Amino acid sequence: MKDALVRQGVALMLRGFEVDPADSNYKDTPRRVAKLYRELFTPAHNNMAVFPEKHDNMILLRGHSVVGVCPHHLLPVQFKVWLGYIPDHNVLGLSKLGRIIEDQLTGPVLQETLTERIASAMMQAVSPRGVAVVVSGSHGCMQLRGLRTQADIVTSSMRGVFLLNPPAREEFLRLIGRIE
Fold first, then answer.
1. Strand, coil or helix: what is 8?
2. pTM of this prediction?
């Protein structure tokens, strides 16, 4: 991310809002906004701790919360992510499940793209027998304009056994509370 360009853009927006850039409330706004986006789009270093382990049952991270930004309006999106996988010969360190999600938030992103990125990253990290991802997003743009709803959007990506084996998919959906 190029902080100087973001600061210039925010300064232009402030001019468009007809605010006094010398006002103490706005003087540091371009720098603060650039810092905010740099922090938001810079995931923590993640050393994908993978352990050779024979394990046949599902491993599931339920309801991991992250914040992203929609590419259409640059407004925040509150995401909740459920990520499950059935290992083949490797398991991922448990805390890395959340990190693999956060690693996909390096800039504004469509929810549909985020969902697919998470599934692909898991497939690449541990080559499991299957990956299941469900993402629920509460979009600022839907809350503040247009429809003005508090509803969430749900996307999913199923790979391997979760795509090909309905009982595995049903178990995942039951465990995350999406079906009874």
1. helix
2. 0.91
Alpha helices in 103-179 (DSSP H): 111-126, 140-144, 161-164, 166-175
Q: What type of residue is 121?
A: A
Please report how many Cα atoms fall inside a 13 Å half-sphere around the Cα of residue 139, on the Cβ side: 22
Mean pLDDT in the chain? 94
Q: Give the model's pLDDT for residue 180.
A: 59
What is the C-alpha separation between 99 and 35, in angstroms, rounded? 21
Tokens of 85: 């996988």
| CA atoms of 6 and 35, how far apart (whole Å) | 9
Tokens 């925010």 belong to 10
pLDDT of residue 179: 66
Closest by CA to 135, choosing from 78, 86, 70, is 78
- Structural domains present in the chain: 3-40 (no CATH), 50-175 (3.30.1130.10)
In order, the DSSP letters of 75-91 are -EEEEEEEEEEE-SSEE
Cα–Cα distance for residue pair 154/77, rounded to 1 Å: 12
CA distance 116 to 29: 34
- Bridge partners, 133 (sequence order): 83, 157
Of 97, 64, 86, nearest to 176 by C-alpha is: 64
Instruction: Assign 55 a pLDDT band (cuts: 50, 70, 90).
Output: confident
